[in-house]
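Try it yourself: sequence plus magnesium ion, in.
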Amino acid sequence: MGHIGQSREYAGVPALGGASREGVLVYGHANGATIEETAAAVSEYVRLGYRAVRAQSGVPGLATTYGVGRGKMYYEPAEKGLPQEAVWSTERYLGSVPPLFARLRQDFGPDLHFLHDAHHRLTPIEAARLGKDLEPYRLFWLEDLVPSELQESFRLIRRHTTTPLAVGEVFSGIHDCELLIREQLIDYIRSTVAHAGGITHLRKIATFAEMYHVRTGCHGATDLSPVCMAAALHFDLSVHNFGIQEYMRHTDDTDRVFPHHYRFEDGLMHPGDAPGLGVDIDEGLAATYPYERAYLPTNRKTDGTVHSW
Ligand SMILES: [Mg+2]
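Structure, out:
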């Protein structure tokens, strides 16, 4: 993500000048095995000052569900050792999500922003049904509804629902989302600095999206380091059509390896005024953490058919 960050660091100023806003709206991840547990996790984020929360809950009848893992503030979907196998039922999932958001709206009122991720597991018509069912709960966005390689499939979803749509964490450049943006099939583009060509290319995507009323919503999972988080925050602060930034907190161990100037306050992130990206890497400390093998799970339907994870 090199040149902009580096040259600005030599100049003694932050990576991108010209802030468009006071701070960067971020969302955290609230997870629970049951609706009750997820509601309690949302309460914790509200207590910390978050204004936006992604909510995922276990699906009754399934042992494990995407987005619901070990850990609360430091949820990490990859498990140590060889891949574990999860079981999936679209039917049960589609029945379980609307009651979750009915409960959350009832508990938290109309102002808290809620987001949800379907992790590319639905067909377009299933996705359309979910979007329609969730309309009364006014989600900030519904993310990754279908495998997004087939951009045209979003036409069908769009025809059926006004729930805002987000996609793009797996995209690596503007041509992966050109049709989605030009036809206004999505509301938020989730490409991020480390995956989509660095700050320079991501700004190109944002500028293109701005013409079509599509806003940004950078992926910010913990497989992206604090270096990427800092770069994303500078980007977020500068672009006019910023929407929201995902913020999965790194563990204290990770934060110590990457000393940084960005901070969270009252629901917003601030990249700070340090030169460049405002983040460093303590290589000596990093060397004290040996590599540990970890995998995301594989996924099968209840009849044994392999399904995308
Ligand atoms: Mg996603």
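One thing you can check immediately is this: The chain is about 35% helix and 15% strand.
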